[in-house]
Amino acid sequence: MIIETKGMTINLADAEWRKAGKSNATGHCVEVAFLENATVVRDSKNPSGQPLVFTGAEWDAFLDGAKKGEFERA
User: Fold this and answer.
1) What is the Cα 25 distance to its own chain's centre?
2) What is the DSSP string of 35-54?
3) Is the C-alpha dihedral spanning 52, 37, 24, 48 positive or negative?
4) How does pLDDT run across 35-69, given as a tens digit for each residue?
5) What strands, in cross-sheet order, belong to the sheet with 30-34?
6) What percent of the chain has pLDDT over 70?
7) Residues in domain DUF397 (predicted)?
8) Is residue 73 part of a domain?
9) Is the residue at 20 inside a domain?
């Protein structure tokens, strides 16, 4: 699958999808692949669906926010 987004061409053919080691067997998790020009995230229940695409800066900002607890429920 090739995606055109954010001025980038993303080829998912060689993506090596990973999920958290703490994921369980229910299949309710997300998978991430780190590519040369982007980080892509998909729903493990729908692997052929359209993934979310993040630039390096966007992914770094997301991780920073997660580490700081910015996404915790109030």
Assistant:
1) 19
2) -SS-EEEEETT-TTSPPEEE
3) positive
4) 998 999 999 889 889 999 999 999 999 999 999 99
5) 30-34, 39-43, 52-54
6) 95
7) 15-67
8) no
9) yes
